[in-house]
Amino acid sequence: MQVTLQKLTTLLDRHDTADTACDRLLEQLSTLIKGPNGCELASSLGRSDVAVLGRYGFDDARPERRHLALRCLHNAMVQAPPVTEMFVNGGLPGRAVELMTVCRLPSEQLVLELDSLTVTPQSTNADDQFFAARLLIRCSADPAAGFLPDFEHGVLAETINAATALHASTGEIEPTVACTAHLRLILVLAAKYEAQAHHLLPSMSPILQMFERAPIRNPPLEPPMSLLIDCLAALVSHNGPIATSEMPWPPFNEDKLVNVLSLAIQAYPPEVLETRITPLASLLFKISQSGPAETKERLRAHLLPSDQDRTQVLGRGDSLPHRLVSISTETVSPELKKVMAHLFLELSDGDPKRLIHNVGFGCGVGLLHSISTPAPPDDSDTGQSTEGTGEINPVTGQRRDMETQTSLAEMTDEQKEREAERLFVLFERLRATGVLNVENPVGAALRSGRVE
């Protein structure tokens, strides 16, 4: 491999890059790095080798040659983390951002220009976008690759937002491979630089356009749908409104999100369902908190039990509200439990008492405990009616007029006495063996005169 790199360096020094030998050497290098000894070979790369590949990848005018060199760089970074460090220390992340740059216009103007087809992008090559995004994703894992100054004072966010608008403007039903890599970059940067993620908010509207066009597959939460939802969840801020006059919330997008959630609950087994739906549930919470009032009302209608749902004990039916109550009760994932608690509490207008009424006492108290919110004192008001259709059992959430009536006959006085005797003997045995150290309740009842 070193011989190959030396030949590439010689061709660069001689400015003899027109020779097709460059392409053959880069293809040979790419094959070696991907081969069985790729990790060892990539680890042998030095700073000068990375610099040579960078010159071919970012300076060569031939797209095919650029992409060969960039593929070599990316694969070497995957095989050997020190290559990433050399890439960062050599200042090459900035070159990757330049490669991604589609236009120096502000993002808002770019969208208008793209719509009117009057803009001439600096780089619209899909493969350029693809490799630039993949290289920046690899760089983000390196502590030395501090993109914070680029977020605050550079063109990183503007470049990403412009590229997102360009990807959305293609009208593709599903995101392309280059767009998918770009979305992954947004997700990685929004997670790593959470305080600066607001600089990427102009990308939300184009991502929503892609989400509207994307078909729902089976199973539903697989790329690209899962990636679009993850990006929206990372960008939607719960500290401010998600809809403004400049970026209105598209109507009925919440309906599609709820449809994806319902299909996901049916499609995935319990062992993977929790991790799959957590980002989607988080997005629904943020939308309910920061979205328009009509959006919140639609989410209430979709997610909270209706009067028809309350003909059964909550959590035992097949409707989406029943399934959500069941998942919220049975989940062992602390993250999903907290997200569902915040979602149901927001849909209950932040009122813990109303949350318990909406989902039942057992589920409600568990959800409130998961977010360190005290449950309200128990009183008869939790059994209030829903939609004016009869009293609700506060424990099960079921309408009392739909509860199954017991067919057992009333106990006779003799049966009650025998049951009391059994309980008395049982408590005395437990006290004698040290299992319990409490007063026998039957004996206390006898002494107080409650039992004759």
Describe this structure in words.
By secondary structure, this protein is mainly α. Among the domains are: 236-402, no CATH class; 416-448. Helix content is 62%, strand content 0%. The protein contains 23 helices and no strands. The protein has helices at residues 2-13, 21-34, 38-43, 47-59, 63-79, 81-89, 92-100, 107-116, 126-140, 148-152, 156-169, 177-192, 204-213, 225-235, 253-267, 270-290, 293-303, 320-330, 334-347, 352-359, 361-370, 413-433, 441-448. Helix 5 (63-79) packs across helix 6, helix 7 runs antiparallel to helix 9 and helix 16 (270-290) runs antiparallel to helix 17 (293-303). The chain starts with a helix and ends with a helix. Mean pLDDT is 83; it is low at 103-123.
List keywords for this structure.
single chain, 452 residues, mainly alpha, 23 helices, elongated
Structural class: mainly alpha
Proportion of residues in helical segments: 55-70%
Number of helices: 23
Order of helices and strands: HHHHHHHHHHHHHHHHHHHHHHH
Low-confidence stretches: 103-123
Q: How would you sum up the major sheet?
A: none
How far is the first residue's CA from the last residue's CA? 97 Å
The percentage of residues in β strands lies in under 5%
Q: Compute the gyration radius: what is it?
A: 31 Å
The assembly state of the depicted protein chains is single chain
Number of strands: 0
Shape: elongated
Mean pLDDT: 83
